[in-house]
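Data availability (excerpt). The following record was deposited with the supplementary files.
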Amino acid sequence: MHNSELLLFTVPPGFKRDDLRSRYDVATIEEDDWHSYSGRRTSEFLTKQLSLLGPSASRLLNAGAGVYGNTTGQSSEISVDLFSTPIKGRKNAVCASVERLPFSDAYFSCVLCVGEVLAYCDPAAAFSEFSRVLAPSGTLICDFGSSRSATHWFSSTFARAADLVVDDYNGSPEKTWRYDPRYISSLLQSFGLETKATLGVHTWSAIARRLGATCSQALFAQEKLDWIPLPANWADLITFVAVKRTGER
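Predicted structure:
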C-alpha cells in the first residue's frame, strides 16, 4: 500500500485538524512520566491480549498509530494516522482518519486503537468504522480517558457521557475528550461489539491527584501501590478488548 492523504477529516467540536498538528504531525514524541507509565502498562496488556489471539490477529490494523511504529512485528500490519510525518517511510502506512477508513468491509481480524486516539475524535464514528472493517469474531482493542476517573470525583465533569476537559501533558495544559465507560459500552453494543476484558491504568494515582498531589507524587503512589488492584472505572485510562458478534455486517 502507498501513503496517501485524504482531503477531508472530521474532528469533534473544539478541534480542527491544524490544532493537532503541532503535537502529532511529528517524527518523534517525548512523553512525560505520567504518559510513559500509561504507555508501558498498555503495551503489556496489548502483548498479553495479542498472544491470546495468536494467528487470528494476523490481519491487523493499527488505527491512530502515530510514531510508535509496528506494534506486533508482523509484516502485514497496516498503520493509519491522521498525519503523514509519523508514518513516513513505514511499510503499509496510510494517512487517513479513523472516522473514515479507506478499507473494505470485514477486511481485518484485529483493530488496535490505543494512545488515547478517542480523545480527539468522535467515538461513535470511529467504532462504526472499526466494526465495519472487522470480520465477524474480529477483535478491537482500544483505550479512552474516563470521566468516571477518581480525578473527576465530586466535580461537575464526573460521569459526563462526553466532556471536553483540560489535562496536563508535559507540563502544559491540553484539551482532551473524556467519556463515561457506560456511554462507550453502549456505543460498542450498538455496533455489534461485545466487551471481553478491560484494563484500568492510573487508579491510585488518580485518587492522589484528586487529593491534591502533583503528577510526580501521584505516579510515585501508583508505582508503590500497583500490586493492590482497584476497580477499572476509577482509572484515568481504560483499555478494553471487544469482539465483533458473528452475524454482524
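Summary of structural features: Helices lie at 17-24, 33-53, 123-133, 181-190, 204-210, 215-225.
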